[in-house]
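Hi R.,

Here's the input for the alpha-L-arabinofuranose complex you asked about:
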Amino acid sequence: MRINVHPSSIIRPTEDLFGLFFEDLNHAADGGLYAELLINRDFSFDPVDRQGYHSLMGWAPLGQADMRVDTEDTPCPGNPNVLHVRAAKHAGIINLGFGAGICLKKGVEARLTLLARGKDAPCLKVKLGDAEGEIRLTDTFEKHTLCLKPSGLENGRLEIMLPSGGSFDLAFASLMPGDTWKGRENGLRKDLVEALYEMHPRFLRFPGGCLTHDGQLDPYARDGIYNWKLTTGPVENRPGRRNNWGYHQSMGLGFYEYFLLCEDLGCEPLPVLNGGLDPHHLRFAEGELLDRYIQDALDLIDFARGGTDTEWGRVRAEMGHPKPFGLTYLAIGNEEIHEQFHEHMAKFAEAIRKKAPDIRLIGSAGPVCAGGPFDMGWAYARKQGLELVDEHYYQAPEWFYANMDRYSRYPAEGPKVFLGEYASWGNTMGNALAEAAFMTEMEKTQSVGLACYAPLFCHVRYTNWQPDMIYFDEKRMCKTVNYHVQRMFMRNLGDAEVALDIGDKGKAEETVLPLGGRIQILADDTEMEIRDLTLDGKKTEDFSLMPEESREIGKAENDFTLSCTVVRKSGKKGLRIRFGYMDSKNFCQWTLGGWQNSDNAFEMVTGGRNSCLIQNNFSLEDQVAYRLCLKVVGRRLMGYVDDVLVCDIPVLPVIRENLYAAASVAQDGTLYLKAVNVLERAAEAEISIPGYRFSEGEVLEGPEDAENSLDHPECVVPHPAAWDGQGAYTFAPHSVTVLRFAKNG
Ligand code: AHR
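And here is the predicted structure with alpha-L-arabinofuranose in place:
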């Protein structure tokens, strides 16, 4: 084949195309990116955060000691819990740290800070591994610091003892490693930030996805919606909160720290703020409460870039950054699909435009790739003149191969796509190849403005969601192959995308997923009655299903019609009609009453990985009879409820091209050619780039099922390309390649 790159034919500026998405799930922050080594450092764990949590979690007596927590006489009104300790001689307390315990590299010291007091000036003896020190308290709350340097520490704990016995009060205790990123006191874990720094992201989305919209509407409630204002100011005064992923969030990593991180990474901050609603619990703010959410967005603009004469610009300055951070992008809402959100968004947009017309506002298109709510999100964004629309989807690799041209079908005018969350359900080379191929197509289309893989981090002992880009424990880190792909794409992106064509590409591999075959009906968390079922006119006897029970009801050719009446007797969700059923890992399904009995969707499961093809609103009520009809005609899936077409989507063929490629040029004269060979065989190509000569290259290659892990973090890592620029280049099987060229003369 022949790759012809046309450096003077500019397709688009690349702007801030590829970036990062950070959400505090999987303990990505506490116990992860946020370097604090003590768990529950402020005694603020609470059953609201998670059933069973309490203010002494992570702490234990050492010897004969009593511990009690209250808020009396607190020095931290924003975060008032205080621990009172009374201990016998040589007794005291310990902190267990996150995960398996406190780890500290050899030669690295840790800085202990205690905000404490004690009557009769008791002396505290502190022990961390083989390092010891003393702190003498006074009878008023004061911050005491002490550096401890154990000779390495694995799964350790911090001991605070009273050699002579007595009592003391502790409002806050922090143990920060001395080797935080840039040595900051309220620091981030160096190896994790370095991994991000190496990527050269162009933006960082924070503080999350669902984390931003799950909670009470009162943003000052402990389980209230994420409130960025509560994440600012002295760390000991920041109230902890319930993180919707089922744990406690300390807020030590707050908005100031996120902005600082963006500055360090040299990327644009992309905060996501709540749009005045919690879609999970159907809570919608109105009136003054909604105004408060809008005001929070306006204040954030000042916090990010306002002068120090503004209230929130002053807060930023007091925290150590009088210079504005800058703010170009602002997203309101995460995966919002409710009409109320779009009404709220109009108000947010009006107020934000008035204050800062240059901000690029991002709206929402919901949690899936197609359907009524998705279209509604886009329609509102166009009407409101938003700059970008946030799309999210997690799909099987097959979906990505079937949808490579997705964005070339979008209009070039109007809001651009912010692909704010995507991944291909796995951390194998096969997954990374599908993502890489998709990224080459995103590069080439004008309709995609920003894109970020999700989620970013996962502490392996606290997994809420997989796949993730980087896994870690207390001391190790694993960069997945997906990470390497993202890194290669970010580091090798010029300022302008240029045209290329591939000649003699050869025939692509095409897989047509079967739609005919075995058919099953499954009751999804409900008791269901199924009557008058016919498959292509042939009647089956009536039957009932208990929750999670399924029944095989026959076989069909590719084109078929299935009709039945269903009545939900009891339960929370609905049913699934599975067809084209090959085995439990490969089938197609029509889901009715899925998620929170709120939608109907066509889904394709391939190799056990689900791809939602389309989702629309729908819920079932108990004791109501619904007449369902599923029609498969050719490659088209149609679902009717009471004769109304409620879901309609074609199943596209899965096409694996012989090579995917994209090229961009940077202002310094470098031309980047990226090529992805997703097939088992090598692909040889003559490369023609008038006016440029080869300088160097990088290749990521490996078997489709290869993946990195904490124990084997380097199974698949990039290596230099073995080529001198002469003759044809051979793209290895299952590989992602970046070739860099320099401008002649
Ligand atoms: O990335 C994990 C979750 O997936 C996000 O919180 C949410 O936005 C999406 O549904």
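One thing worth noting: The chain has a mean pLDDT of 97.

Cheers,
M.
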